[in-house]
Design goal:
Number of helices: 6
Order of helices and strands: HHEHEHEEEEEHEH
Largest sheet: 4 strands, mixed
Strand order of the largest sheet: 1-3-2-8
Radius of gyration: 16 Å
Shape: globular
Number of strands: 8
Length: 196
């Protein structure tokens, strides 16, 4: 596999390749961050990118792999989080001006569990204000575009998460779904989305 192909690799395959040293966590995180940088101006899947923190975590993850330490099932795999879920030390705006500077002191349970499994947070994905619409646009961050046709919607309210995964801006994203908010964007963007 070339480093140019990493962004096309699913989370479970990538986790296996990291464990077997075919791919390093640093390469995996760098591949996702390069895709984000290239596609953010057009797709607009992210509201916050935690590049420095992710690269630091990737270096630590790589050291653990090389030292033969016990690894979690998603060790070194990049993931993103919908901007409705709290992430320790990273702003969670809920797509609203009201919470534009809100920073939580703890992770939401699914975020904590992914970190415990060894996954590496690369950023927060766009959501409509309070996740209340079946399309993704925010008064703070604008609209997330469908990655296959920029004139169309990515769906909502986890549209940023779906667009990110569909375009290789990380193989795994957390969303929320009360009435289709993961499943609708997944369908719009041509990926699998599971209701949490």
């Amino acid at each position: 596999m070339t480093t140019g192909d990493i962004h096309r690799t699913d989370a479970l395959t990538l986790a296996r390749q990291i464990r077997t040293k075919e791919v390093s966590p640093v390469e995996a995180v760098d591949a996702a961050l390069r895709r984000i940088e290239a596609l953010q101006p057009t797709v607009n899947a992210f509201i916050t990118v935690t590049a420095d923190e992710a690269r630091d975590a990737a270096r630590r993850a790589e050291t653990a792999v090389m030292a033969g330490e016990r690894l979690g099932p998603l060790h070194g795999v990049p993931f993103s989080v919908k901007d409705l879920l709290f992430t320790k030390g990273v702003r969670t705006t809920m797509g609203s001006v009201i919470f534009a500077e809100q920073v939580s002191g703890e992770d939401a349970v699914p975020v904590r569990r992914l970190r415990e499994a060894g996954a590496i947070l690369i950023g927060k994905t766009t959501t409509p204000e309070f996740g209340h619409k079946p399309l993704t646009d925010s008064p703070l961050f604008g609209a997330t575009r469908n990655p296959w046709d920029l004139t169309r919607t990515a769906g909502g309210s986890s549209g940023g998460a779906a667009a990110a995964v569909a375009t290789g801006q990380g193989p795994l994203a957390l969303g929320t779904d009360g009435g289709g908010s993961v499943r609708l964007p997944a369908a719009c963007c041509g990926i699998v989305g599971l209701k949490p």
